[in-house]
Amino acid sequence: MHKPIAGIFSVLMALPAFADDAPPVAAPPVDADPTALILFAVLFVAMIGGFAGYIWLKERAKKKDTANQAG
Predict the structure, then answer these.
(1) What is the pLDDT of residues 22-65, one digit of tens each?
(2) Rounded to whole angstroms, how far apart are CA atoms 28 and 23?
(3) How far apart are CA 62 and CA 55, in angstroms?
(4) Where are the alpha helices (DSSP H) in 15-70?
(5) Which phi and psi (to 5°) does residue 44 adopt?
(6) What's the DSSP call for residue 34?
(7) What SS3 state is found at 18?
(8) How far apart are CA 16 and CA 18, in angstroms?
């Protein structure tokens, strides 16, 4: 049992020695228009605000209904 584990461990420890020493490739420059990011951010915030408003209106209606039923 110990020999297979030791063999696997030895192979795993030797793997970095077999790695390629090629220099990392630089990422291409970003020349994208920020319009899509701005549009996404505005829509994201609007959706969160709309959901919060919907929940608030539903809770308000629920409180109004319980007040009408009680009195």
Answers:
(1) 777 888 887 778 898 999 999 999 999 999 999 999 999 988 88
(2) 15
(3) 10
(4) 35-70
(5) -60, -50
(6) T
(7) helix
(8) 5
- For residue 71, the model assigns a pLDDT of 58
Residue type, 22: A
For the record, the structure tokens of 68 come out as 């009408």
CA angle 23/26/30 to nearest 5° reads 175
- If phi > 0 it is left, if psi is from -120 to 50 it is alpha, else beta; for residue 58 that is alpha
Rg of the chain over all Cα atoms, to the nearest angstrom: 30
Tokens of 12: 């795993």
